[in-house]
Every structure is written in structure tokens, then in C-alpha cells.
Amino acid sequence: MSLRTQLRKILPSISVTEQEALDAGDVWLEGSIYRGKPDFDALRAVPEAKLSSEEQAFLDGPVQELMAMIDDSVIQNEKHLPEHILEFLKKERFFSLIIPKEYGGREFSPYANSTIVGTIATKSSAVAVTVMVPNSLGPGELLMHYGTKEQQAHYLPRLANGTDIPCFALTSPEAGSDAGGIPDQGIVTKGQYNGEEVLGLEVTWDKRYITLAPIATVLGLAFKVFDPQGLLGGKESLGITCALIPKSHPGVELGNRHDPMGIRFYNGTTRGEKVFIPMDFIIGGQQNIGRGWQMLVSCLGAGRGISLPALGVSTSQVALKSASEYAAVREQFGLAIGQFEGIQEKLADIAGKTYLQEAMRVLTTEGLGMGLKPSVVTAIAKYHMTETGRDVLDSAMDILAGKAIQNGPQNTLASGYVAQPIAITVEGANILTRNLMIFGQGVMRCHPYLQSMVEAIHSEEANADKTFNKILRQTVGYSVANSLRAFKLGVLPFTASSKSSLPEVQPYEKAAQRLSAKLAVYADFSLLVLGGKLKQAEMLSARLGDVMSYLYAAMASIKYYEQKVAVTDREAAAPYFHYATRYALVEAEQALHKFLDNFPASGTRKFMRVLTMQFSHSMPQINDDLVRELATAAQLDTAFKAQLTHLVKPQAGDGHDINEQAYKAKIACLDLLGKVKKALKKREIKAGVRFYETLDNALIAKVINETEYAQLIDYNRKREKAIRVDEFDFDLNLLDENTASGTIKSVVNQ
């Protein structure tokens, strides 16, 4: 019995849906990471993302107008998104960011799309989600890539100008993450349409969690097609298919709403029972029956890398701006709380991870802007950037403490805190994304021979044994080369290469090379020892996926520092860069240790450890000095910090504006505050019960002059407003029609 025959009994074949997912996307930088040789040349050759003049004008114009219209505290106390906001979104074509200009769309880049969604999300998650869904996975993108010319000509202009509002229904009560297992079905049959008998489908569906469904005018629908009567002349089960159905079509049910954590975006259900649709409703026409899953995974990869990561980044930027400004202004025990090391530890973590988030956002959208659809990279972006956003926001909540938990217009964190689990759940729960998708897809997509080998093992071709043996020899050679390289870098780590011209970058590039080489070895041995069982060993494969993810993050950090940080800002950016890159490398190394510690075959585990010299932690660590340095930098008013929080656009009178005014006022009078504190310490003046009384005493004692007194009084007024929280002139248990009308105002902000 040949080796191929023996393996055929052990290894499962690739299912149709798995094969379509593998064929749908592109392999990008993650391929070089998996193979042990991170391609920094390709990284540096990626065109730098920049906004066009048209995109910048849209951000400066309609987006700014929209931000001024939004009061999220009012939205959250209403049942619906305000009609004037919805009409503004339609009028300014916010739903057409990806639609080509020939159809009336804006045709913006992925980077611009991400920037727009992220900017809106800093003010309102509900409005951001409403904008992002039509510009992500939905009828628009499916029509652009797969629709017939007639479908494109009819629907795309209507989607662009807001005449039609789209939604896309994939998830059912019985099939969430397992989208390939959807029970919804369409039976090929004949029926009446426009007074004629035509060939079509009798479709039955039950879908939930469908964003925009309650207000959609056109429904994108995924279901399985069956042809029991053989009307199409082929097999009975034809596969997943996507159709576009007007809401007005008989039998379509759209309307019942969910309540996702009180975030007031439209999310709901759609159902239909034996609804007859003509073949013309299938996206791309009858010829695309059974191609739905391929269409979906191809389009999903791009959307997953834009919208949800943008929400994670916006959360981080809001957290950094809010926490750093509050830490600088809020004082306890006579000191700004940002000077306490406990606060500094949290603040540095927020700052470093926000840098990493922005670097990953930029790199991922740059890849998408090249026309690539890297499904593994977008899965990495979706998982890690939404999870990091949650982690960063938790730290900011700790720093702002009581201010962070009181709802009202002045609270800059509450909306994001409540909405963050939504981004983590959408488009597949994050547990699935990490445990199955990142490495599960990565191993098949990135290994140079594995997919071909599995196909050869299950091949019925006459020369299958010959083909298999050839691939096996190539695989063995590849694995031996991986092992030799990893052993060399383990014994002689200084031989790792770096092509960066910046001395501070070179150690990190070399570290990434060493970790990647080890990853390639561990992946090879996992496949050799565990084979098909690796698919079920989710905790092990997830750790290998973590290594890929964090090395991708480290590469993003390096590229951002080299290309997006101005030379004049390098000094200010350095602590952010060092913290972010070290964090990514340390997490990657930690994942390798956990993988080895839990590998089930003892002998193989010991051999891998010796082969790669993986006995201790060798990555540069985040020490206390770096934490203090970054926490201090995060509290400074620098151009680079403004760059890292650029998505946050304070509007007159909102929480960000109140915080920023107090922060900038304090930065401007630090020397004067020092004079007053020095006088207090020398007992030249007495402290008042309130700070303005202390300033009165300082003026009388001529510690400060009239001009300085006026500046300090102005700062104190802004400081007092910033450290207060919203309070209301009504009983919170008596929310009634006043709430719905948006007339209730915070006492503080009146």
C-alpha cells in the first residue's frame, strides 16, 4: 500500500465550501511570515496610503457636518436614528463610498472608507454602523463584482443616491459562524411573475441579526438551491446562491427589530415562506446558482479588513485622547493623576496599543488598496483590532473612573464601551476567527505545497502517486530548509538580517525574522505529527495563528514608523513605536512558548525546543522606564499625538471639546501653576477651599500678575467643567416623551 493511500485514509478531504474559501482570496505578507521569511522588501514596497483631494474634501465637508449633527446621548435615548441624520446620509451619498463613479458613487479608497467610518465611530457607533454596512459586505459590492449589466444599471445608481437602502441576510438561527450550514433553501420551479409563467425559485428563509433590515428597501439573501425536478438538467443540490429581492416583492417580511445593547442602529429579522422569485433576481443571473459562497467569501475578506477594524481603532483613539487629557487635568493629592505610576501603566498601554492599531489599520487598507483580498490578513485585522480596542477601552474606563460611567453628552467613552462587543461579534464571533480562521486558513493558503498535497492524496487521476511523490519531496526539502534556518538563528541570533536604515528599527526586524523561522518549524511539525487532528486542536493552532498575527502587527508598526512618521516627529514617536513593537514581539514569543508547553507529543516537543533553541524569553521587554517615558509622552501636546488621535474631531460643546479645552489651557499655563505651587510650598500664600480662592491669594501676594491671574482663572473654569460629569434635572425613572424628543439637557452643559 502506497504512502498516498495510507494518508488518504487518515486525512480528510477539503470540502467544497472550504475549497471555495481558499480559492477566493489572495496570499500577501502573511505568506512570508508563515514560511519563516518575513518579506520586509515587499512590506516597504507597499504604496503609502494617502487621502485624495476629493476624499479629504469629503472628510472636511460632509463628515464634519454630520459630526456636528450627532448627539449620541440623544440618539441612545430615542427608538430610531433621527430622520434628519438618515436623510443627510442619503443626500451626501454616505452609502456609496465603494460604488463606482459611473453609477453615481464616490468610489473612495479602502483607506478613505476606513477613515470615514472610524471618524464617525468616535462620535456615534450607531451612525458608524449604519454607514459601514452598505459599504462592506452587501448588495453593492456583490453587484459590482458579480451582477449582470442590467442589475448594475438598475440598482447601483439607486444605492448610490439612497433611493434604495440595502441589507444582506446571511445569518440564521441555525447557522451563525457555520454559514455554509444555512438551512434556508430555494427550490427550482416554475411560477408567476409579472403575469407570466417563468422559471425561478421558491425560497423559504428565516434570518436574524441583519443590519439595516428594518429600513431596507432591497434584500440581499443567501440560501441553498435544490432542483428535485431536474428542471436545470443537472444534480439536485446546487449550493449556496445569492439573490437580490425588493422589499415590495410579495411574501418578503422585513421589519422586526433586535435591540443590540441599546445601540440604536437598525438591526433585525427577515423571513419568507415559499416566496417565488424569478431567475433574474439571482445576483449575476441563473449562471451564478451555486456560486454564492465563493462570492461571499471573496467580498467578505475586503469588508472585514475595513469596517470592523476601523471601529476598533476609533475606540482606541478616543480612549487615548480622553485618558491622556483627563490624566493631565485631573488632580488628586496635589498631583495630576498622570504622575502616579498606576495610572502611567494603564496610560502607556493605551498609547502603545493605539499606535499599533493605527499602524495595522493603515497597512491593511494599503493592501486592500492594491486590489488584494488577503482573507487571512483581514481576519487578523478583524480579530486583533476589535479585541485590542476592547482592552484599551477597559483601561481608559479605569482611568476616568466615575466620569466614565455617568451617561450624558460629556461622556466620551460610554457609547464605545457599550458598542464594542457588537464589533467583536459581527462577521463571525472572535473566538471562531482566532481559533479556526487565522491559522486554519493560513496553513492551507500560506504553505507552498500543502494544498497541492491534499489534492494529490485524494486525486483519482492515474498519475496521482507520481504527483504526490514529487510534492512530498518538495515538502520535505522545504521543511528541512526551515529547520536548518531556525537552528542557525537560534544558535547565532546575530545572523538575522535587517535592511532598515534606522538603527532603532533593526533589532526588531531581526527579532521578527527569528520568531518567524521558529513558527515555520512548529507549523511543519504540527502537520507531520498531528495531521488532520490539527484542525480540532484549536488551542494549539490558535497560538500559531497568534504568532502570525503579532508578527504582522510588528511589521505594520515598523512600516508606519518608517513611512508615516515625519523625521521631525521621530523623537516624539519613538516611545510609542518601541512599546507597540515590543508588545507585538513579546506576545508572539509568548504564543510560541504556550504552543510548545502544550504540544501533546513529548519527544517531538523536546526536539522542537532544541532545534529552535526556544528555552527562554529573548524578545526585548517592556520595562518600567519605557512605561514612564510613554506615559509622559502621551500627556504632551505634540503633533504626533494629534496624528495618532486624528479620527477624533471635537465639536463645540461636546465631551471631547470640553476635555481638550481644559487640557490645552493647562499645557499653556504649566509654568504659572508651578509658580503658585512653589509659593504654597514656601507658605508665601494660603490654599483656599477652592482653587480660585488660592489664585485670589496668589494675586494679592503678587505671586502672579493680573494677566497671569486671568489665564489661570480661565484654565480653572475649564478644568472644573472637564472634571464634572453630566447631571440631569429630572427623575431618571420618569423617562417619557421628553426623552424621545431630545429636549432633555445636561445641567452642566446648559
Automatic annotation (TrEMBL):
Cofactor(s) listed in the protein's UniProt record: FAD
Domain Acyl-CoA dehydrogenase/oxidase N-terminal span(s) in chain numbering: 67-162
Superkingdom to which the source organism belongs: Bacteria
Acyl-CoA dehydrogenase C-terminal bacterial-type domain sequence ranges: 444-728
Pathway: Lipid metabolism; fatty acid beta-oxidation
Record-annotated Acyl-CoA dehydrogenase/oxidase C-terminal domain positions: 290-432
Key word Acyltransferase present: no
NCBIfam families reported for this sequence: PRK09463.1, PRK13026.1
Catalytic activity: a long-chain 2,3-saturated fatty acyl-CoA + oxidized [electron-transfer flavoprotein] + H(+) = a long-chain (2E)-enoyl-CoA + reduced [electron-transfer flavoprotein]; a medium-chain 2,3-saturated fatty acyl-CoA + oxidized [electron-transfer flavoprotein] + H(+) = a medium-chain (2E)-enoyl-CoA + reduced [electron-transfer flavoprotein]
Protein name, UniProt field: Acyl-coenzyme A dehydrogenase
Family of this protein: Belongs to the acyl-CoA dehydrogenase family.
Domain Acyl-CoA oxidase/dehydrogenase middle: 167-267
Alphabetical UniProt keywords: FAD, Flavoprotein, Oxidoreductase
Keyword hit for Flavoprotein: yes
EC number: 1.3.8.7, 1.3.8.8
Enzyme class: oxidoreductase
